[in-house]
Structures are given as C-alpha cells and as structure tokens.
Structure to design on (779 residues):
C-alpha cells in the first residue's frame, strides 16, 4: 500500500475542524478496503469521507480525513501521523507525517461571587478565573467603583493559569465609615487583564469584566435615628412654632439658582430696586456690566442656566454616533474646565446648566479625531456660540471621523490548500473599495477602514456559495471577525449516451456518492441521448450507472470538484443480452481472486475481475460479464500477475447464455539471485556452499568465481525459503526469503571471518531480509 498526503503543513485552531486529503494506492493483488487513524494529536476527533475506501488491485483513490481539536488543545507545533491501514491485512499500512501548527487562542472567564454582599465597613468577595483558551495566561486583577469611595485588595493580585484550569482569588473591600443614614449600595467593577505568558504587555491581551454591589450598612440604623428625631421634634415643637419658625420666615432670603459669581454687578435705582449696568461686560472681566439675559439675584427663579443641544453622526453612521463627549469651554474663563455631556445611542446630546456667555464646543472620543464646532480641527478656528440664561442653542448635526480601523479573520473552504477566497467590504450593500484575498491558510486582513461603520463582509470563491457576515468597527478598532465556513456550490454532469454510433434515448442513469443517489434519463426527443444531472453536492466522486433493456450496464466514475460543471461526457452502451460466467482457479483447485477477465471481439473490449470474497454463486474466483451482443463469437482472456495468461474462444447463441467458462492459471516459476561478500574486505567470496529449502524440497549450489561471490536458483515455485550460507573460515549465516509467483528475488549476504568477533547466526536472524512481490520490492 502507498499513501501520499496532499499537504504536510497544517495550521489549525482549537475547536475548529481541518481537512487532510490522502491519495491512497492499493499495491496488493486483491480488492481491499482502506481506513485511517491519527497519532500525535491527543484528544482530537477523526472522521473520514468515505469511512473506508474500497480499491481494486493497482487502483488509487482519495480519502478525505477531517480532524477537530478539542477547545483546550495547547498552542504550538506538533508532529502528527496519519496512517492508512488495510482492512484485510492490518500490518499492511502507509504512514504519512505532517506538521500541525496550533494557533494560540487567548480566552478566559471572570465571575464575582456573590454578586451582592452587605456589611458595615469591610467585606470579602470571591473572584473565580477560568482559562478557556489554549495558552498559559498571566491575569492581573483591578477593581474600581464609580464613587471612588472603596478600597479593594486582591489576594493575590496576579494569577497564572494553565489551559483548562481555574483559580479563586479573595477580594477584600473597605468602605469609609458610615454612622447614620440608610443602606448605601456601592457599585463594584472588577476587571482582569489576561495576557499569554511571555507576551508583550499589550500583545494578544483580553480584558474581562464583572460587576457586583457592596451594600454598606450604617452603624446606627435609620429607625433609631428616626425615633430620636421624632422625640426631639415633639419636645421642641412649641418653641419652633412660636419662635423659630417666625424667625426663619422673616429672615430666609429668596432661593438662589446660582452663586454670586453668576450675576454681574448691578446699580440701585431711585426706587431702591436693582438694575443692570447699561454696558455689558465679557465673562471673566472686572467691569460692572451684566451679561446678556442676566437675572438679578433677588428675583432670579431656579434653573436659569443655558443649554446647548445637537447631534453627532459620521459618514457611515448617519443615524448618530453614541458615546462621544461634547465639551463646552467658556470663552475668557480663568480656568479651562469644560461643561460636558455624552451623546446617546442616536447621537443626540444636551449640555445643561451653562452660565450666560460665549462657548467653544469640542467633540472627543477614544479612537476618534477631535473636532470643534462647526467642524474645525483646532480650538483657534472654532466658532464661539453665544448662550443666554434660560435659553437653548441648537448646533445642528456634527460629523466626526474615526481613526482607521481593521478587520481580520479566517475563512475555511474544507480544501487543502484552500483556494483563494475574495473578501469584499460593503456598507449598505455598496462596495467601499476595500478588498482582500484569503491565503492558502484562510487568513485575511482589511486595513485602513473608515470608521465607525457596520461592514458587510462578502466571501466568494469559484465553486463555492457566497457567504456574508456583518461586523461593526468602532473608531480605530482592530476587530477579529468570526470564522466563516464556505459551502461548496452544487455541480452538474452533462453528456450523451450512444449505442456505439447513434444517440440512445431512454437510458436510465443514476449517480451515487456519499450515500446519496440522483437519477436522470437520456432524452428521447429533441437532443436524443442527451442527459443532465444538476444540483449535485460537491466535492465528491460519483459512480454513474447507465442501464437500458437490451444493453449491458455501464459504470463510469466521475470526480467533481467544488461547484464543478462537467460537460461532454460520452458513454457508449453495448447492445445484447448475452452473459458469460465461470470460475478461475490455480492448478490445485484454489480459487483465484482479482483475475482480470477481458472479452474481445467488440468495438471496445469489456472486462471485469474475479471476486476476492463471498460464497455461493458469488464466491471467490467467480466472475460474470453481461450485455454481450448475440449471437456472436468472442475471445475471453484471463490474466493475473505471476500467472500465465489463458485465452478461450466462446460462441453465444441466440439464448445468449454461456456458463461454466472456467479457467486454470498456472503460476510462473521464479528465481533467487544474489552475491556473497567478505564482511571485512567487502570482496566477493567464491566456493561458498548455499543451501535452499522450503521445508519439503532442498537445493544446493556454490558461489561463483566470476562474478566473484555470485549465485542463482531458478525454477522456484511460490513460497517461503530458508537460505543458508557456509564456508570454511567464515561464520555461517541464514536468511528467510518469500517468493511470489514469477518473482525474481534478490538476497545479498556478507560473511564474517571466524575470530573477527562475530557470533554464529542462527536461522531467521534479526537482519534476515524478506523478499516481497516484484511490484513492491523488499519490505
């Protein structure tokens, strides 16, 4: 048996299948079945299509093996072995080695337990970490709370995890003292930065997040405080009602909506009221004039601040871009502290509580280019926006631009190597001009993508159905898309069936592969004899069977690649209903399987082989050929390597039946030749006695002087022989050889002089050679 692997360099990911295509040849002289096994990838799942490949003697076929690695399979390079093994002779095998590169997958899980815990000042949480990838991870833990009131400590703060392992870390939380009041829930956000061992600080890192709540209880419960307050209120109610309440009502000033700095200096009128200065002053100046839209503080209602509203969008996200920060800077302010607001999912924002004045508005976000209203890149070029008290200023729509992003991933076709796959990026079904081609390993990358945008990636390859996925790329983001598996397109087989000369209609046709059968028939009108088998799953090798009453059955094997359309297949049917059958055996009566039986005397010879197994009318050595034109005279030839061919002449009458056409094939005698050399000088030794025996018969000869050391045995039947080499002054050696019918075997030997340190060698020594068939050579 021989086997050849299509590719010896394989790249794979855990949990994702990859394919190995194995070309197998049957070098034996019997019909055999081949199956495969896998070594070097512990825990991997192996399946093959077909599960077992049947092969005639001397025939070849393709066996596709699919391997799926477990999800926790460690990254690295592995040396794998795919073994093709004979079902009839398990020791007859062919081993194909390949290199398997398992790509690293950084993946982990984080969980906080319990999610909510109560306490006064200190408490503990349990943080569970799971390495669900295939590389050793180093995980750093951090904790944050929006109020910045908690202090958290991890024991330990850094954890190392091997693939498919877990760890538990204790997180101790401390809150500030709380004597009175109600329970206060404090949000906790635990983040973990998981990076492969030995990798740079930011390379292939994964950030995990888990949220929890710490409910802090006061030392003095709220109920106790309430009771004390009620007692105090009852005891002091009379005094509050008669004295304190009156004082409060007479002395309490008007509610203020802003601090004193909100208002400009004012002048007193002749009536004793306040009036604004006649000339306005810029915010931040020392002039006494009031800004436009000011309110005197003694009459100012609550909520007089101004508002700036608007919408933020982008080129490919016209509906709006969320999580962009809008910042309003007061022109002329001594401190450059902006009032800010974030855009919602639809891009709308609202900056509230602005003092009257003029503002410059900036729009920023991680991964985006900062712009200033109305669309400039610097604050110096920005246009100031006037804001009055209690008014709303709408800026309209602003368009932001994200930093260039990228998309990468893997597309699989199931072919090794994979054919080129074209990857096209579209937005709203319109190509953007960003195109990539996946290489033989299926990897692709699109760089310099406009962001933010939702891209549709279209994957197309000749012979495969197109597949689409949608991926959102935020500003400056590098996104790894999900792996895509392309499905091969359907194929088609077209052709014409004739009777050797004219088109033949009404022929039934079936195509079988992988347990599926498709049927058709040749046309009887129009293009007579034409047939078509559409929508065939590919890739696959189909066995086409052509049958019609009065004609012999024809079988044709057709291999279809992915999406292949095969046209112009011509099939000639042989008319007649004659049948020839019989048994082929050896001289001793032993049935011979795999004998080629060929019927001549036809425009195209018809042949078959004798069966290699079975019973009854389908026993080993039997054959049958039907569909022969009758009446007629034919020559039937029987041939098998290692045996003499036999030809018989038969005549078929109108009944068309010839049974008992048997044949006996005589084996061709073989020979054994070789040379005997001195193990020290490597020169030929003449006069060596050479004895050969098969356990029943024995022969003897001597090595010749010309050529020096040469010998030869002829007219040897098939069988196993023991050959003994002996000569005075030399250590005797024995070899075991096996001759097939008609084989010319060769057995060389080296004899060691006595006293050279070599020990006598018994029969069947470890170094004895076994001679196999002439087709395969020594094994």
């Amino acid at each position: 048996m021989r086997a050849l692997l299509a590719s010896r360099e394989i790249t794979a990911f855990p949990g994702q299948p990859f394919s190995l295509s194995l070309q197998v040849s049957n070098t034996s002289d019997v019909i055999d079945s081949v199956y495969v096994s896998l070594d070097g990838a512990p825990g991997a799942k192996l399946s093959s299509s077909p599960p077992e490949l049947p092969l005639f003697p001397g025939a070849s076929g393709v066996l596709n093996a699919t391997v799926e690695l477990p999800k926790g399979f460690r990254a690295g390079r592995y040396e794998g072995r795919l073994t093709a093994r004979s079902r009839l002779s398990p020791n007859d095998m062919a081993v194909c080695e390949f290199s398997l590169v398992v790509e690293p997958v950084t993946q982990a899980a984080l969980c906080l337990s319990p999610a909510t815990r109560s306490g006064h000042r200190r408490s503990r949480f349990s943080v569970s970490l799971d390495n669900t990838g295939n590389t050793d991870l180093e995980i750093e833990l951090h904790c944050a709370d929006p109020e910045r009131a908690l202090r958290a400590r991890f024991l330990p703060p850094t954890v190392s995890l091997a693939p498919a392992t877990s760890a538990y870390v204790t997180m101790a939380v401390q809150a500030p003292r709380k004597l009175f009041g109600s329970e206060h829930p404090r949000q906790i956000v635990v983040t973990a930065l998981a990076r492969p061992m030995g990798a740079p600080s930011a390379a292939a890192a994964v950030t995990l997040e888990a949220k929890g709540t710490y409910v802090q209880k006061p030392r003095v419960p709220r109920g106790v405080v309430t009771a004390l307050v009620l007692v105090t209120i009852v005891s002091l109610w009379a005094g509050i009602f008669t004295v304190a309440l009156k004082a409060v009502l007479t002395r309490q000033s008007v509610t203020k909506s802003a601090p004193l700095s909100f208002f400009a200096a004012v002048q007193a009128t002749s009536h004793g009221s306040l009036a604004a200065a006649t000339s306005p002053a810029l915010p931040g100046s020392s002039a006494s004039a009031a800004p436009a839209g000011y309110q005197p503080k003694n009459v100012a209602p609550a909520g007089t601040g101004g508002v700036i509203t608007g919408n933020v969008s982008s080129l490919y996200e016209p509906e709006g871009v969320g999580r962009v920060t809008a910042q309003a800077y007061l022109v002329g302010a001594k401190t450059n502290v902006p009032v800010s607001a974030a855009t919602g999912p639809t891009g709308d924002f609202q900056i509230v509580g602005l003092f009257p004045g003029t503002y410059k508005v900036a729009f920023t976000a991680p991964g985006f280019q900062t712009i200033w209203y109305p669309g400039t890149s610097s604050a110096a070029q920005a246009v100031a926006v006037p804001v009055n008290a209690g008014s709303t200023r709408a800026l309209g729509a602003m368009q932001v631009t994200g930093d260039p992003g990228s998309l990468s991933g893997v597309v699989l076709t199931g072919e090794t190597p994979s054919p080129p796959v074209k990857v096209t990026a579209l937005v709203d079904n319109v190509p953007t001009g960003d195109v990539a081609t996946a290489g033989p390993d299926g990897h692709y990358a699109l760089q310099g993508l406009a962001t933010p945008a939702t891209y549709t990636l279209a994957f197309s390859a000749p012979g495969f159905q197109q597949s689409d996925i949608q991926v959102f790329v935020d500003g400056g983001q590098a996104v790894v898309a999900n792996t895509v598996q392309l499905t091969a397109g359907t194929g088609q087989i077209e052709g014409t069936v004739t009777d050797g000369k004219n088109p033949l209609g009404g022929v039934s046709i079936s195509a079988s592969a992988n347990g599926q059968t498709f049927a058709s028939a040749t046309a009887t009108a129009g293009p007579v004899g034409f047939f078509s088998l559409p929508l065939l799953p590919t890739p696959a090798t189909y066995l086409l069977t052509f049958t019609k009453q009065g004609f012999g059955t024809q079988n044709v094997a057709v291999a279809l690649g992915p999406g292949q359309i095969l046209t112009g297949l011509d099939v000639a049917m042989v008319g007649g209903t004659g049948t020839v059958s019989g048994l082929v055996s050896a001289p001793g009566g032993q049935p011979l399987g795999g004998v080629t039986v060929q019927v001549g005397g036809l425009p195209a010879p018809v042949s078959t082989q004798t069966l290699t197994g079975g019973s009854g009318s389908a026993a080993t050595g039997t054959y049958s050929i039907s569909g022969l034109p009758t009446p007629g005279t034919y020559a039937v030839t029987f041939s098998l390597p290692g045996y003499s061919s036999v030809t018989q002449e038969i005549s078929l009458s109108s009944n068309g039946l010839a049974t008992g056409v048997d044949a006996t094939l005589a084996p061709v005698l073989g020979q054994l030749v070789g040379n005997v050399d001195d193990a020290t000088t490597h020169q030929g030794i003449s006069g060596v006695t050479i004895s050969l025996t098969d356990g029943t018969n024995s022969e003897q000869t001597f090595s010749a002087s010309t050529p020096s050391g040469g010998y030869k045995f002829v007219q040897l039947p098939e069988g196993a022989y023991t050959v003994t080499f002996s000569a005075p002054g030399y250590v005797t050696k024995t070899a075991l050889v096996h001759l097939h019918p008609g084989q010319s075997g060769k057995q060389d030997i080296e004899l060691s002089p006595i006293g050279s340190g070599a020990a006598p060698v018994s029969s069947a020594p470890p170094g004895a050679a076994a001679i196999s068939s002439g087709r395969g050579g020594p094994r």
